[in-house]
Specification:
8% helix; mainly beta
Length: 371
């Protein structure tokens, strides 16, 4: 039995064209423990306004999404799509690149409060480009999506690992106050394929439907024609699987990043995420999520060499980051589907830099309201 979904304001004209207004907000309280007194904070984490609609008998679709949190206003999505039939959609604009079914999920449907460290390290992130596919992963037994993008992330929230190792800050081109509004062009090509049980609900890790075993497996790849070595992987690959049966679900994603720091293309980082969740009843789900990222010596050496060659670059801790990991568990109360939900989670965290491991803990409470 699916949980109730959120609602939206809808305008319909005489030709049955629709325009929907959507609002979503998340309020987060967080406690961080790193050996001393806990650090407590509360903030509006997301406040998003969206418009989406269709016309011409659903053959033309469009979407716009903005984050309007004070001090962090930015463009999230802005795209249009041509849908000539049930098996094909051609989308153009700014949107998530098709790298893993896992990142195709909405932030509103995660098992815990936030994305795990491996998803943030490897992406996908939004870019400006064009892509074609047959719909959301899981709708058919076989699925695919392919696209060509600028190679420059419009946001700095995901695919951050290379810049983290190089010790250089990322620009946020989507910032509505300071963003450039234009993007350098070094094309990046993406391909994602999935296979599994038809009509699999791959939009969330929870098994809201229950019933017999359903499975989805996928593989994704990305190749950047001319990457910025201090920001981009030249290539990325991921394999993933999702199993759901009788309200229990298990999901895994594995990542590989390739880097070219001047000495040729080499493996640079590996990572993975594992999840297990149980929808106890239609209003309650519990989950455990583990995630880890390891940087390899080739990437760390390239970062150190770059910092030594450019001492005025402002790089901090270049080549130091070796590993990040987290293991967390939590519960989600679906008071009205994802439209009104409360999440509570806790996690153990580890970061290893220059051979020194630092451990910490985190507790988060989040209230989500979607209209």
């Amino acid at each position: 039995m699916p949980v109730p979904t959120s609602v939206a304001a809808v305008v319909v004209d005489a030709d049955q064209a629709e325009l929907r207004l959507r609002l979503a907000g998340q309020l987060l309280a967080q406690a961080d423990l790193e050996g001393g007194p806990p650090s407590l904070a509360a903030r509006i984490r997301r406040l998003r306004v969206g418009l989406d609609g269709h016309a011409l008998d659903h053959q033309l679709r469009l979407a716009l999404q903005l984050n309007v949190v004070p001090g962090a206003a930015e463009l999230i999505d802005a795209w249009g799509a041509f849908v000539p039939g049930d098996a094909l959609e051609v989308r153009f604009g700014v949107f998530k690149t098709p790298f893993t079914r896992y990142r195709d999920q909405s932030y509103q449907a995660l098992l815990l409060v936030d994305w795990p460290v491996a998803a943030k390290a490897f992406g996908a992130e939004r870019q400006l480009g064009v892509a074609a596919g047959d719909g959301r992963p899981g709708e058919d037994g076989l699925g695919w999506s392919a696209g060509v993008f600028t190679g420059v992330n419009t946001r700095k929230a995901f695919a951050t690992l290379v810049s983290d190792v190089y010790g250089l800050p990322l620009e946020n081109a989507s910032d509505l106050g300071d963003g450039t509004g234009s993007y350098a062009l070094h094309p990046e090509v993406f391909l994602r394929v999935t296979a599994g049980t038809p009509n699999m609900d791959a939009a969330t890790g929870f098994d809201h439907d229950g019933g017999p075993a359903r499975v989805l497996v996928g593989a994704s790849g990305a190749w950047d024609v001319a990457p910025d070595p201090a920001v981009d992987f030249v290539g990325r690959a991921a394999v993933e699987g999702l199993l759901k049966v009788s309200c229990v679900s298990v999901g895994t994603v594995g990542y590989l990043g390739l880097h070219d720091g001047g000495g040729g293309v080499q493996p640079a980082a590996v990572g993975g995420t594992g999840e297990i969740a149980w929808r106890v009843d239609p209003r309650l789900g519990v989950a455990v999520v583990g995630s880890r990222v390891d940087t390899l010596s080739s990437l760390r050496a390239s970062a150190r060499d770059e910092a030594a060659a450019n001492p005025d670059s402002g790089a901090e801790g270049a080549g130091a980051l070796e590993q990040t990991a987290e293991l967390g568990g939590g519960a989600t109360w679906f008071l009205h589907g994802t439209g009104l939900a409360v999440q509570l989670d806790g996690a153990w965290l580890r970061a290893v830099s220059s051979g020194v491991a630092e451990d910490g803990a985190r507790v988060r409470l989040q209230v989500q309201l979607v209209l």
